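User: Some background: our group keeps a shared notebook of sequences we're curious about, and every so often someone picks one and asks for a predicted structure to add to the entry. Today it's my turn. The entry only has the sequence so far, pasted here. Could you supply the structure so I can complete it?
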Amino acid sequence: MEETISVRIPREDLKMIEEASKFVKRKRSDVLRQIVELGVKQVMLVIALEIFQKNEATAWKAARLAGIPLTQFLDILAERKINFHYTKKELREEFEGLT
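Assistant: Of course. Here's the predicted structure to add to the notebook entry:
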């Protein structure tokens, strides 16, 4: 379900949104919804990576929070050279929980 909210947007950001809207020939509101969607996904990934690094969540739970498959989350950990602090036993248990 969608909900309408009011938000203040800095003038400079609004200019960029309007430029993007003209460039892609879509309504400003459509472009803004896409920006919010991408931003939310990015923020959720950052939060998931942070809680994983702090050992506050397993890789599986962090991946779920980020809304991505565990395998993709593991790839991101590798790409960003984030220490994978699991033992083989913990990792095995994590993958067994997926089936």
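Suggested note for the entry: The radius of gyration is 18 Å. Helices lie at 11-24, 28-53, 59-66, 70-79, 88-96.
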